[in-house]
Amino acid sequence: MTVRIMKPVEVARYSIDKKPLYILDVRNEDAFVDWKIEGESIEYLNIPYFDLLDGVDEIKGELPKDRDILVVCAKEGSSQMIAEMLSEEGMDVAYLEGGMKAWSEYLEPVKVGTLKSGGELYQFVRLGKGCLSYMVIDAGKAAVIDATRMTDLFLDFAKEKGATIEHVFDTHLHADHISGGRVIAEATGATYYLPSQDAEEVVFDYHKLGDGLRVTVGKTLVEAVFSPGHTSGSTSFVVDESYLLTGDILFIDSIGRPDLAGMADDWVGDLRTTLYNRYEQLSEELVVLPAHFMEMKEVNADGSVAKKLSTLFSENHGLQVEDENEFRELVTENLPPQPNAYQEIRKTNMGVLTPDAETQREMEIGPNRCAVR
Length: 373
Fold this sequence. Notes:
Elements: E1 4-6, H1 8-17, E2 21-25, H2 29-34, E3 42-46, H3 57-60, E4 68-72, H4 77-88, E5 94-96, H5 99-105, E6 108-114, E7 120-126, E8 131-138, E9 141-145, H6 151-160, E10 164-169, H7 181-188, E11 191-194, E12 207-208, E13 214-217, E14 220-226, E15 235-239, E16 243-247, E17 255-256, H8 264-278, E18 287-290, E19 307-308, H9 309-315, H10 324-332, H11 342-350, H12 357-364, E20 371-372
Parallel strand pairs: 1-5, 2-3, 2-4, 4-5, 9-10, 10-11, 11-12, 16-18
Antiparallel strand pairs: 6-7, 7-8, 8-9, 13-14, 14-15, 15-16, 17-20, 18-19
Helix pairs in contact: 6-7, 8-10
């Protein structure tokens, strides 16, 4: 039988639409346990590639006949070989084009709203990494917030929409993924904004992002709200008086961690003030759009990651901790592992390191680890 090639965009539909998929993951067990393709209707079998070199007879009986089967590895080669072995045994299977590295880089554009002036707000969902980026488009102008290093997608998307990118923002100095903000700004002549509190060690020019900064994209207002806690300079954005882009401070089912710069004890007070004071002064009707998500259950049926602020005030555990000492323990103790190569990623985002493209891919491998639940 012919072995099919499945692209990341196809896998995304299984994940978002909750379609049944069976994944044979042939990476080593530690890599599989740490990070895998997720979805409510996805089942898994993890057998390292080296254990299958002598044949696939032992696993044929474990693979279902009533659902699509996808073989996955790190880069593609191993999964293609195993898929071909299964095909020779008469099984209909596919392998993931580009492997988990390609899955890590795939972005799904989702329209999250029509703006008051008729413009549009898009969310770019990085399903394999849990990263969320944004583009505001109005009257032929555009602003990009928290762009990933896959900059061509943003440049091409704006071109397709007939929009010129004039503003590029990073809500903070990222530690889990490499920002594409500066590259996009250089390619388009846009102004690149970064909180000055996070930029003490950067080696490039930037425009200071401060509390109350107001820029217009076409006729749409984007206003900065200083919201420290994940970093000392973390800044949120209110877009069109309707959407709250929270960066890595507030997520749908969790809150930001304050320890990635080694300042957890110093920043925990800022984090609590942002969540329990600054955000409570905002309209509860704002739709929260975070910079990350942790699990597929946070992804809505339309593929977006969004909920009203009022809903998070009542449902998000991180917003229900009245005792300050209990809150401090929550965000400073028993934290998840830190992101892969996070120190090197921070230095790359400062401009101190300039790794090549393949090294950047390796640095980002792994799940989202910016949250505390």
